[in-house]
Amino acid sequence: MNVLTDNWSTYWHGFLGTLWLTLVSAALALVLGVVIAGFRVSPVKPLRAFGTGWVTVLRNTPLTLLFFIVVLGLPRFSITLPFFTFAVLALGCYTSAFVCEALRSGVNTVPAGQGEAARSLGMTFGQTLSLVVMPQAYRAVIAPLGSVMIALAKNTAIAGSFSVVELLGTYRTINELGYSIIWTFVWIAVGYLILTLAISALFNVLERRVAVSR
Amino acid sequence: MTVESSALYDVPGPKALARHRLYGFLALVVIAAVLGWVVWMLFHTNQFTYQKWTAFQYKGVQRLLLDGLGNTLKAFGWTVLFALPFGALFAAGRLSDHRPVRWVSTVVVEFFRAMPLLVMIFFIFVALKVEPLWALVAGLTLYNGSVLAEVFRAGVLAVPKGQKEAAFALGLRKTQVMTYVLVPQAVRAMLPTIVSQLVVALKDTSLGFLITFEEFLHAGKLIATNLDYDLPFIPVVMVISPIYIGMCLLLSWLAKWLEARGRRSPKEGATPIAEAGPVLDAQG
After folding, report:
1. Is B12 on the interface with A (CB under 8 A)?
2. Which CATH number is B58-263's, of 3.10.450.40, 1.10.3720.10, 3.20.20.450, 3.30.450.20?
3. What sequence ranges are listed for the domain ABC transmembrane type-1 (chain B) (predicted)?
4. What pLDDT is stored for residue B5 in this prediction?
């Protein structure tokens, strides 16, 4: 127990770092994911091809390789940003591919007849999307999106090895002070569990709120 | 029409088609501009100089890369070898009739799925002082094995109930029901998901880089940080990424092919095996 109390501020900073990294990357992943999903379902062929390429490449790239490229590669193009921004870029782009797929499969669960009916009622594209398609797609999207976000929170651990302050990286500091290494990791594990359980609870609430038997 | 029928768009008329062509043209211009900028940047920062690429001509460097690739595949191979039995064991545990066994299996599987893989790998590497290769394999086995356990379980549960009842009615014992009736059908239905999970395992072997395991990325880093070759970072990335992504893509395609093959019903006129929905995050 005293490993935790003695190093409270180290752990706290690490935890906040992980939390912040998760939130910012999630925001980027959601925005990018929505845009790419839009590309992938659009009737414009080059955009569809771009979206497909983006998703295929990123889903088959090891995240460590992506970090490697972003953190060590971009500076060669004389693009120097803080390590935190690099980490957000890598995590956000990687996760956006999974967000895109979750959204796209959600939209695809809505039968084509729904859209046809909406259009035959004279609804515009915006109305069809916001009043008919999205509310139905939303339900199918929440659960997979929750899994994606939990995976994102777990993936932030990689950032610690690329000079970002986050929870896993705290073990080095605490280890140097001579604390029991096992207990150090136990508290790190607890930190991650708190985060992932919180995300899954959040998505459970969201899911329950929109659960309608269809 | 090339567009699959979707709830979002009507079948386009002549005006809409013209508009889509215009958008397509604009999109192409933008994509070409971005690509052009990247290529220009590559030339501008002198990534194609003789000095930066000459390293790849040396036998030693090729050896280093091949050894790295070999180590990556070795870690992957061991992981597959351990994770599949691990998954089968804990899936059986979770389906057991005995409550304590079920409890323990559930706790183990849920815990290892909830933990970031890297935390486990670091724990095994730093706290238990295991060699990098085995720390990596152990971490990957625990995580992917747990996910596979859930996949197997979902597969067994997705076999139609009548199969089990029929098997019991024939007087088979519960082990026989499992091994002769449920598991063969479950494995068949879950094969694409299992292969997809192996893609995750292959991707995650690159985490070994972070615990100084001498795998592919590590070899790349060694070459990239060599001053003699003028720090050929971008060339190394251009050599390594296609190989990594290519390996994962091949496995992904195998999964997709298996899925397409499975959807074709096994025998003409036979009912296709129920597909278990995706229960898990397919992400590392």
Report:
1. yes
2. 1.10.3720.10
3. 69-255
4. 58
Q: Is position A41 within any domain?
A: yes
3-state secondary structure of A128: helix
Amino acid identity of residue A99, one-letter, is V
Cα–Cα distance for residue pair B55/B65, rounded to 1 Å:
11
A131 touches chain B (CB under 8 A): no
Q: Identify the pLDDT of residue A213.
A: 55
| Alpha carbon distance B131, A165 (integer Å) | 26
Average pLDDT across chain A, whole number: 89
Instruction: Please answer whether residues B220 and B240 qualify as being in contact, where contact means their C-beta atoms are separated by less than 8 angstroms.
Output: yes
Structure tokens at B186: 């479950």
Residues whose CB falls within 8 Å of the CB of residue B210, separated by 6 or more in sequence, listed in order: A64, A158, A161, B118, B121, B122
Token digits of residue A116: 């046809």
Q: What is the ipTM of this complex?
A: 0.87
Residue A122 CB-density burial (10 A; 0-12 exposed, 13-18 middle, 19+ buried)? exposed
Closest of B220, B215, B244 to residue B232, by C-alpha: B220
End-to-end CA distance of chain B: 37
CATH assignment at residue A156 = 1.10.3720.10
| Contact yes or no for A166/A195 (Cβ under 8 A) | no
Question: Which residues of chain B does A175 touch, with a Cβ-Cβ cutoff of 8 Å?
Answer: 126
Is some CB atom of chain B closer than 8 A to the CB atom of A13? no
What radius of gyration, in Å, describes the C-alpha atoms of chain B? 25
What ranges in chain A are assigned the alpha helix state H?
2-6, 8-41, 45-59, 63-67, 83-108, 112-120, 125-127, 134-155, 170-176, 181-210
- Sequence-distant (6+) residues with CB within 8 A of B140 are B75, B79, B83, B117, B121, B201, B204, B205
Q: How many CA atoms lie within 13 A of A160 on its CB side?
A: 28
pLDDT at A34: 93
Residues of chain B neighbouring A197 (CB-CB closer than 8 A): 114
Q: Is A109 a domain residue?
A: yes
Is the Cβ of A141 closer than 8 Å to some Cβ of chain B?
A: no
Work out how many domains chain A is built from and give that number: 1
Average pLDDT of the residues in A57-85: 89
How many Cβ pairs within 8 Å bridge chains A and B?
161
- Could you say which DSSP state residue A177 is in? T
User: Containing domain of residue A77, as a range?
Assistant: 17-166
* Residue A119 falls inside a structural domain: yes
Q: How confident is the model at residue B266 (pLDDT cuts 50, 70, 90)?
A: low
Round to whole Å and give the CA distance between B102 and B93: 5
State yes or no: pLDDT of A212 exceeds 70: no
Q: What does the pLDDT average to over B111-129?
A: 91
Which residue type occupies A169? Answer: G
pTM summary value: 0.87
pLDDT of B278 strictly over 80: no
